[in-house]
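Quarterly update from the structural biology core.
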Amino acid sequence: MTANHYLANYPDPIPLELLKEQEYALFIDDYIESFVADVTKQVGPLNVLLQSTSFRVVLETMKKFQAVSIIRDTQIQNRLYDFEQQNLVAHSLGDLGTPQITDFKYGIIQLPNKQLTPIQQEFVRGIKLLNKR
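Predicted structure, tokenized:
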């Protein structure tokens, strides 16, 4: 969010009710889209005002409409000058947006008549040991 947003100085974590009230300006990015989809599954849809491939458009929308955004740290560091970075305030989202499913299975596909390398065999052994716990 911008430094003059009314939640800029709010302590982390910002309550979910306040986050849901905000308008969002989002950069079109596979990671952000996936994150927003996970958040939507958890808390319902966000009020997305704008989505754009232009970082400048997202930034200007944040300034003009007091919108908030979900931006990766690297995007800010790689796309904004230092003085622009100082005008943004970051807040932690805690566990918000983390996938709820934590169980998964490993598998291996092997071509007929092909043997695993010693490292691959060790990996498979390790996985089997983990699954026994």
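Helices lie at 16-21, 30-43, 55-65, 73-79, 82-85, 118-132.
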